[in-house]
Write a structure and sequence with these properties.
Its EC number is 5.3.3.2. Keywords: Isomerase, Isoprene biosynthesis. It catalyses: isopentenyl diphosphate = dimethylallyl diphosphate. This is isopentenyl-diphosphate Delta-isomerase. The relative contact order is 0.16. This protein has eight helices and ten strands. The strands form three sheets. It has a five-stranded mixed sheet. Strands 5-4-9 form a three-stranded antiparallel sheet. A two-stranded antiparallel ribbon has the order 1-2. The chain is α+β, with helices and mostly antiparallel strands. The protein folds into two domains: 1-30; 32-245, Nucleoside Triphosphate Pyrophosphohydrolase (Alpha-Beta Complex).
Length: 247
């Protein structure tokens, strides 16, 4: 009986601690953030050095909160259709960082799991997982070998007074996509395909409408190079292990 009471007390303390942590998070997120987005803060990201050496795991919450953020792996997927139009995604209003900003097709993190921790291969698995989760793009439309990795980039950007990004971002390109799209509205508010000219016009109208990592890849000239070389990305793939600083 004593052991059962001790176990019950431990469970109650655990629930109380979890409730307290949730309450603390709710105090520093904006009012439109959804419960699932807060739950995702428990996910374990991959903390790395500036040379992309794994240091350990870190919660998504800690890695994105100002004062505790650490460099961690991320990825950005650029999906193009056969007409060489880029799929833009508008981040959902329920996202914690950069809600309603337009960005590249899919942005997220490989997790500290056996399948996703192994460098490029792990990032490709993560990209498959999140493309389906956010846009309904199934693995049958994006095999691991379909992703072309074209670079690694370190950047940082504050979303607001509480949340920030500090990431080592793997950039993947998926060409000639013709499959369906089914939006998860807790992730993506809208999507649209744009030509290079249309994108440039949209960006120039108001750069603040776009996510900072996407804006940096555009303003530093990387996106234009990839767009121009879509027919043959081999030069970029060969140089993709080099890590570049965006800011």
């Amino acid at each position: 009986m004593l052991r059962q009471i001790q176990q019950l007390n431990t469970s109650i303390r655990g629930l109380a601690n979890a409730a307290s942590a949730m309450a603390q998070i709710q105090e520093v997120v904006h009012e439109n953030v959804s419960t699932p987005q807060i739950e995702y803060l428990k996910e374990r990201c991959i903390a790395v050095s500036e040379k992309d050496k794994i240091i350990g795991s870190v919660s998504k919450g800690k890695s994105h909160q100002k004062g505790t953020s650490v460099l961690h792996r991320a990825f950005s997927v650029f999906v193009f259709n056969p007409d060489k139009e880029l799929l833009l995604q508008q981040r959902a209003p329920t996202k914690i960082t950069f809600p309603l900003r337009w960005t590249n097709s899919c942005c997220s993190h490989p997790l500290f799991t056996e399948q996703e921790i192994e460098g490029e291969t792990g990032v490709r698995h993560a990209a498959q997982r999140k493309l389906y989760h956010e846009l309904g793009i199934s693995a049958s439309h994006c095999a691991l070998h379909d992703f072309k990795m074209v670079g690694k980039f370190i950047y940082s950007a504050d979303s607001d007074e509480n949340w920030t990004e500090h990431e080592l971002d793997y950039v993947l390109i998926l060409k000639n996509y013709t499959g369906p799209l089914e939006l998860n509205l807790d992730e993506a508010a809208a999507v649209k395909y744009v030509s290079h000219e249309e994108f440039t016009e949209l960006y120039d109208q108001d750069p603040s409408n776009f996510s900072p990592w996407f804006g940096l890849l555009h303003s530093k000239g990387w996106l234009a190079k990839w767009w121009h070389d879509l027919d043959d990305l081999s030069e970029h793939v060969l140089a993709s292990k080099t890590i570049h600083r965006l800011n």
